[in-house]
Amino acid sequence: QVHLVESGGGLVQAGGSLRLSCAASGRTYNRYTMGWFRQAPGKEREFVAAISWSGTGTYYADSVKGRFTISRDNAKNTVYLQMNGLKPEDTAVYYCAASSDYPLGRIASWGQGTQVTVSS
Hints:
- By secondary structure, this protein is mostly beta strands.
- It has strands spanning 3-7, 10-13, 18-25, 33-39, 46-51, 58-60, 68-73, 78-83, 92-99, 107-110, 114-119.
- Strands 2, 4, 5, 6, 9, 10 and 11 form a 7-stranded mixed beta sheet that branches. A 4-stranded antiparallel beta sheet has the order 1-3-8-7, with no helix packed on it.
- The mean pLDDT is 95.
């Protein structure tokens, strides 16, 4: 089991940038595919991005492709989500997730979430 804690959320103007971090604890962290999801008020949780355990494989939702970048540092047990060109529709609670599958399959662990608010 891996425990996940997100940070880095906040309030930013449209067009701005934020970098989210997800710190993981657990001996098998670097065996997991890591992903980011988000949930806006009144909407279902949706996939944002994922990265393979080695970091060589990444994929993104069409809505964020070209603006967001997922990366990981296995030495620091941390996965990042660099978000550029933020839009008001990116406003949501962002969740970190871990899965034993690549592409992402069943989610083994979720973080508690971090709020991102983009003002117009």
